[in-house]
Amino acid sequence: MSTRIVVPRPRVIDRSRLSYIRLRSASPLQVPRPRLIDRSQLIYLTLGKVPQARKINPAHVHYLRPEPSVLEKNILSPETPGTENFEPFAITPQLEQEADRRIAQYPDDQKRSAVLPLLHEVQHRFGFISPESIDWVAQKLDIAPIKVVEVVTFYPGFRQKAPGKLHFRVCRTLSCAMGGSYELMAKICELTGIDRGSADTHKDPISVSPCGKFSVEYAECLASCGTAPVCLVNDDFHEGVLPEKAQELIAQYNG
Amino acid sequence: MSDITYLPGKEPHANEHRLIFKNVDRQGWDTSIDTYIKDGGYEMLKKGLGMEPKAIIDEVKTSGLRGRGGAGFPTGIKWGFIPPDNQKPVYLICNCDESEPGTFKDRYIVHQDPHQLIEGMILSAFAVGAHTAYIYIREEFPEAAITLEKAIAEARAKNLLGKNILSSGFDLEIYVHRGAAAYICGEETGLIESLEGKRPYPRIKPPYFPAAMGLYMAPTIVNNVESLCHVVHILRMGGDEYVKLGTPRNSGTRILCVSGDVKKPGYFEVQVGKVTFRELLYEMCGGPKDGREFKAVIPGGSSSKVLRCEESFKIGRGDEAKDITFWDLPLDFDTLAAAGSMAGSGGVIVMDDSRRMSWVLNNITHFYAHESCGQCTPCREGSTWMKKVSDRIEDGSATPEDVKTLEEIAYQIDGKTVCAFGEASAWPVEAMIDKFREELVGETSEKNDFKSAERLEQEKFLSTSF
Ligand SMILES: Cc1cc2nc3c(=O)[nH]c(=O)nc-3n(C[C@H](O)[C@H](O)[C@H](O)COP(=O)(O)O)c2cc1C
Ligand code: SF4
Ligand code: FES
User: Fold this and answer.
1) What CATH class does A166-254 carry?
2) Is the CB of B426 under 6 A from ligand 2?
3) Is residue B308 classed as helix, strand or coil in its secondary structure?
């Protein structure tokens, strides 16, 4: 039997968009009007300094594309019920001081190395990485904002939307899964009213409870497989959290 | 060592030989520098700084120490790869990304004995001529990052780090750099890219061997936490003495991390090759859970090939070849390689007869599909396809042909990628199919036709003319 290679499903194309390249016999060719671009959004594309934002005539605003572009989507931080848990991003003296200390750890001409430490600092203080904080990190390190964006969007350790006050990261890898971590996750969701139905583990791994107090996410092996199942609650590590101990775990923080 | 007592319930097993883990779970032990110095810590540093760097490298070469991070490459030889005419600064990086599923040894070193690592790092940096060293620690160890930074500050205060260490004229700074939850940052060139503030896309070797072109294109030595800790003990015992531990070509001790379906999972520091699977799983881990039998074992982290418990292997060359059953296999680098698997990072994952292999396979493929960095096509696409096909096997909608497809995808990744992640993701799948084909095929059905749903939709889409 000859072997067949299975082709993954092609992306479905929105066929209505194809109308631009099709000549309609009945009606005259419709060329869409050029749209005005808010140049301040473009800084993520430029390599050097941030250009001055062009003034936009409010009367023209309706020309702006209604849907954010892929790039815009990648820098925006959608609101979640957890947003109110955190202060909005602000450049404080403490933040600057900590950033300078981190930058000093790397050779003078290699400031870019500090991008992870700076992002950690932002996420630690403000809960997540917002577009403003991306700009700040880029400025601090003299690099184009796109270089910060590419880092933020790659690493699962950085999140772009607010988690709950208590963020559970449950290990789902083999040893923990054998120990019952999937059941643990289900139990935590049940107890905190989180609906993980639509969670996509790759693009949007975090689910926040409606009250904004809790959020959950799967983590990959947390390097404590011998005490499976394990999870992180914010920065605290918990081992041997059998599903039946979920209640106890949450109570520990709620008390 | 007789005066050392351990926390109740955490005493080492009689088969263990503790060097690196001497202070783990020790009664009255803490992470402060005073405790460490009181126990004879930093004595080897004084000795080492009085030696020639070359002499330390030779000592490590004599010891036969092999890297404990996964590849098992001889550490002393790696250190010798720094170009002799090098003008650039040399960097030392400690790989504490411990993310190989099944491995949990570095965690205890950095949480409970940070000064041992720092002493090992100072000695290694001195040997290779590095004046800046980084500890790349995974993001999921926030507490350890703080512990390490505190330990570094303590060592600095005692002039064990900083300028002119102990008046030897040697300068060294160690910094902690936190990763951000990406497995591929464990791969040494990916780690270096990450440390440079980029996406951790591994570099292709050759030419980018870190020892010649590493961090900031300068010579860089990347070593695992455990490997660096061994340097302290090699200096204490002397290379000649150290090499007597373990078995020839597999010297020293190593930490085995057992998890999964055993009565007492945990970590065991043993002489390499002196413990067989029988001893490890029955004596040290208390055997299978009640009413269960062992079925399969992943011997060196989830990237290594799975072994069946009723297998036997032909080990050795030519006339010396011997038949050895799985239970009599010693856990060392060479024997496990001869048995078709690898010792890897020492993470032993045990599965008993209650586990369905399609479920295990599915869990593993999900891990690799999530963690591929996406730089090269065979790995990025292949790992996702393997996940999709194994999803089908797991949810019962696969055909027997799917198992074959899965195997084919794996063989198309293996050996065709930028970094060893390709093999790491393909080997477990290849082995799982090789050893449990019947079981996997048994989960499929001729009657299934995933094409009916998916293909039809595709065909409909393709046939509508544009
Ligand atoms: C996909 C992949 C993941 C790896 N993950 C780790 C890791 O988590 N920790 C580690 O020490 N080495 C890891 N390694 C091995 C490193 O590339 C490197 O060989 C090791 O750090 C060298 O140190 P050693 O010589 O002391 O073993 C990984 C390798 C690959 C290919
Ligand atoms: S093999 Fe995979 S992980 Fe390695 S570089 Fe290629 S895509 Fe990235
Ligand atoms: S599998 Fe969960 S900690 Fe390793």
Assistant:
1) alpha beta
2) no
3) strand
Which of chain B's residues have a Cβ under 8 Å away from the Cβ of A104?
none
- Taking the centre of ligand 1 as the mean of its atom positions, its distance from the CA of residue B96, in whole angstroms, is 9
Closest CA to B103 of B273, B196, B262, B225: B225
Q: Which two tokens stand for residue A140?
A: 């601090």
- Which strand (E) or helix (H) includes residue B267? strand B266-271
One-letter amino acid for residue A224 of the chain? S
Note the ligand closest to the C-alpha atom of B258.
Answer: 3
Chain A residues lying within 8 Å of B200, measured CB to CB: 154
The residue extents of the domains of chain A are 71-154, 166-254
In B77-116, the DSSP E strands lie at 90-96
Q: To which residue do tokens 């055993």 refer?
A: B262
Q: What's the rounded Cα separation, in Å, for the pair B30 and B382?
A: 46
Q: Could you say which architecture CATH assigns to the domain A71-154?
A: Orthogonal Bundle (1.10)
Alpha-carbon distance A247 to A250, whole Å? 5
Long-range contacts of the stretch B320-324 (C-beta < 8 A, 24+): none
pLDDT tens digits for range A202-217: 777 889 999 999 999 9
pLDDT tens-digit map of A60-117: 555 555 566 667 777 788 888 888 899 999 999 999 999 999 999 999 999 999 999 9
C-beta of A238 in contact with ligand 3 (< 6 A): no
**CATH numbers and ranges of domains, chain B:** 31-244 (3.40.50.11540), 252-352 (3.10.20.600), 357-442 (1.20.1440.230)
Q: What is the DSSP-derived secondary structure letter of residue A7?
A: P
ipTM of this complex:
0.91
Q: Would you mind telling me the total number of residues written for chain A in this entry?
A: 255
Looking at residue A237, the DSSP 8-state letter turns out to be E
pTM: 0.87
